[in-house]
Amino acid sequence: MNPQINLTQPFVPTSQTPCHNSGWKAQFACPQGRLGWVVGHVMAIKNAPMIRFGVEMLDVQPEDQVLEIGFGHGRGIQLLAQYAKRGFVAGIDISDVMVRQAARRNHEKIRSGYIELSQASVSAIPYEYARFNKVLAVNNYQFWPNAEPNLVEIQRVLDDNGLLVLCLRLKAPQTMLQMVPGYSMDEVEEIAGLVRWVGFRDVQIVRRRAGDETLCILAKR
């Protein structure tokens, strides 16, 4: 279910990790093939300000144990590792194309053991209870298979007082270039309410212009 990157051997993607949708829009949920490789680079540019915002909100310290959900192209992983210099950074993504792309970007620290990447879903995070003290998810909540149990699964791998940062893109006026839908503030409040419902505490919403209009939901386990 969760093959990890071993840079000395070919990466074998799992057939159990869901990438079921078809069409070009589905490439943003689970990039596949040559088009998916291109989409990964597009998202690296488009999401860069949002990723920096999310990492800032996570306030990563040198010895932190950090998980990124849906790491995509791997720039967030790279940035997290720059701050968690004596800690550990892990990432999960359902796309084997993104695992490969992120592994190329972060190959040195993967070899040294500071970074670990797995092909896996937020519905079944391949780590033990309380493994991390911080979890980041940037612009992929809309693709989660089932938000409530997925949030519970994140709770499982967070230690006591661990921090979740969930970053979302706000809904913008419809244009032909808007490929990824955003959320209204009412929808964001509903998401924050669900985060509280599953048991997170100290839930707050921080809004900022980060490329597009963006916000992050911060919550403590």
Structure summary:
The protein is an alpha/beta fold. It is built from seven helices and seven strands, in the order ααβαβααββαβαββ. Strands 3-2-1-4-5-7-6 form a seven-stranded mixed β-sheet, with helices on both faces.
Q: Which CATH architecture would you pick? A: 3-Layer(aba) Sandwich
Number of domains: 1
- Radius of gyration (CA) equals 16 Å
Task: Please describe the biggest sheet, giving its number of strands, its sense, and whether it closes into a barrel.
Answer: 7 strands, mixed
Number of helices: 7
Oligomer designation = single chain
The CATH H-level superfamily is Vaccinia Virus protein VP39
Strand fraction equals 15-25%
The structural class is: alpha/beta
Question: Would you spell out the secondary-structure blueprint of this structure?
Answer:
Layout: H1 33-46, H2 48-58, E1 65-69, H3 75-83, E2 88-93, H4 96-105, H5 107-112, E3 115-119, E4 132-138, H6 147-157, E5 158-169, H7 185-197, E6 201-210, E7 212-220
Helix pairs in contact: 2-3
Describe the structure.
This protein is of the alpha/beta class and 221 residues long. It has one domain (24-220): Rossmann fold (3-Layer(aba) Sandwich), CATH 3.40.50. It is built from 7 helices and 7 strands. It has helices spanning 33-46, 48-58, 75-83, 96-105, 107-112, 147-157, 185-197, and strands at residues 65-69, 88-93, 115-119, 132-138, 158-169, 201-210, 212-220. Strands 3-2-1-4-5-7-6 form a 7-stranded mixed sheet, sandwiched between helices. Helix 3 links the parallel strand 1 (65-69) and strand 2. Helix 2 packs parallel to helix 3 (75-83). The protein starts with 32 loop residues before the first helix and ends with a strand. Residues 5-17 and 23-29 have low confidence and may be disordered.
